Amino acid sequence: MDAMEDFEQASAVRESDAGARETEVRQLKERFGEDCRVIEKIGDFACVVQVALKQFDVTIKFQVSDGYPKEPVEVIIIDRNSSQTTVSDLHRFLSESNQTGLMSDYLAMAEQWLTEYYRQSATSELIPATKSKGQNRRRNRSADIEKEESPKKESMKTAEDVISRILWDSNLESENFSVGYLDRFLGLMEKNFSQFSWEDLASVDYTVLAIPKHRIQYFKYRKVIVWDKRKRLDNVFGSAGCKVTIADVIENYVEPEVTSSDETEKCPQPEHVKNDRDIKAKDNGDDSNDDGDDDDDPDKFESERHKSII
């Protein structure tokens, strides 16, 4: 009977935990709407709850066990723009400050911390206005002159426009394109276009390669750069005054050939081969004594030297 009672009590506890979990998840969905995604029964977890705080460009993911809320959730922070230090500081703050362990409390505290963080960042970047009115007028006149002298730049298609074009244009094969992007730790990297997942970052898993669009630096068609953010080059749509489109690039593209000089540079001759060539160049077969022997023959020289010693 004791075992049966223990089993019934454990079942009641699990049902109570499940009910509390479902209630909180429902409340989060009501509050965040489409920005709250829930995946049920994934791996060892009862569910995974993912909430996008779009005003901060931050996503917080909760991995929830069957024992929640008595068992704490695992919190994962995905920040598209901030440094790893900022993410670590936010994670430490949530771990040390949340006493209840509830997802709703984690989110409220994260919003509070991020609001204060960005407020302080904005304050530190402000420049105090200490200049006189005359200085300000001169500065404004100079700015107006610069605006008149410098022509307005033509608008340029974005990296997201290029991605959509490659994905949906039936005349383009995505395997022929590659993407240059800035990795937060490794710097500038380049990978084939088809290796990336171009879904919303908040919806992808850790097993796929996905990057924020603002980190893309260039696109290549085979070996030719066709879009470059820094150089304002757009040979995909022809925007920013470029006038060349991807159709022109494909039509005129010629695969670069590897020349013999390139092969020589890639495969330099070993040092001992060079030395042998130098020896042969110096040894011109001169036989000044007409004795049938090469005067420059090192074997002959060593033999004559041995005779003289004897």
Structural summary, described in words:
The chain has helices at residues 2-32, 84-97, 103-125, 133-149, 159-168, 246-252, 260-266, 271-282, 298-309; strands at residues 36-42, 45-53, 58-64, 74-79, 177-183, 187-192, 216-221, 224-228, 233-234. The protein is an alpha+beta fold. The strands form two sheets. A five-stranded antiparallel β-sheet has the order 6-5-7-8-9. Strands 1-2-3-4 form a four-stranded antiparallel β-sheet, covered by helices on one side. A hairpin with a 3-residue loop joins β5 and β6 (187-192). α2 (84-97) packs across α3. It is globular and about 70 Å long. The model is unreliable at 6-10 and 301-310 (pLDDT under 50).
Relevant terms:
four-stranded antiparallel β-sheet, alpha+beta, 310 residues
Give a quick rundown of the structure.
By secondary structure, the chain is α+β, with helices and mostly antiparallel strands.
Number of strands: 9
Based on Cα principal axes, name the global outline. Answer: globular
Evaluate the radius of gyration.
35 Å
The ordered string of helix (H) and strand (E) elements is HEEEEHHHHEEEEEHHHH
Low-confidence segments: 6-10, 301-310
Q: How does the helix and strand content classify structurally?
A: alpha+beta
Strand content: 15-25%
User: Helical percent range?
Assistant: 40-55%
What does the largest sheet look like? 5 strands, antiparallel
Query: Looking across the biggest beta sheet, what order are the strands in?
Result: 6-5-7-8-9
Q: How many helical stretches?
A: 9
Question: Ends: how far apart?
Answer: 115 Å
